[in-house]
Design brief:
Length: 158
């Protein structure tokens, strides 16, 4: 059960960061390298508590679908999305936004279990955990750029 935790300081208000993190459109743009797109559930705009989205993307050369639902939501402090169906055995993903001097500390915790028991645990150690961490860091860096540009321009970018 790997747990990936990242922290990123963003020079933008917590409410803006929170909304960008739950934006279907920003998520799709931030994951362009995997051709990720929302194909069911909420497919654009901001996802809310109780709603779900099904993503289709290409990882490791294989087209995959994954459905996640927002199970906890406290704007602008945090939200949690959990896998409903997909390639993982399970995942729990918390996005937290803590106001800090001149911005927001974003904490991202991704707790997952790979399928296939021992084979899945071996895949985690060999490549999957590193792949997922890089995927999340790229996505968060993109969101940071959008949030900081929006804060400088006094726009929402949504």
């Amino acid at each position: 059960m790997p747990v990936i935790r990242t922290e990123l300081y963003i020079r933008a208000p917590a409410a803006l960061c929170f909304d960008l993190a739950r934006s279907i459109d920003i998520h799709a743009r931030s994951t362009a390298q995997t051709r990720e797109k929302a194909v069911a559930g909420v497919t654009s705009g901001l996802i809310e508590l109780g709603q779900s989205v099904t993503w289709e993307a290409v990882h490791f050369g294989i087209r995959q679908r994954l459905t996640a639902q927002i199970t906890q939501f406290d704007r602008p402090r945090y939200f949690v999305d959990e896998m409903v169906s997909g390639v993982f055995k399970r995942f729990w993903h918390k996005h937290e936004f803590i106001p800090a001097s001149e911005g927001t500390l974003m904490i991202d915790v991704f707790d997952y279990t790979s399928p296939l028991g021992l084979l899945g645990r071996m895949a985690d150690k060999l490549f999957l955990q590193q792949y997922m961490e890089q995927f999340l860091v790229r996505r968060n860096e993109y969101m940071k750029q959008v949030a900081e540009q929006a804060a400088r321009d006094h726009t929402t970018m949504l």
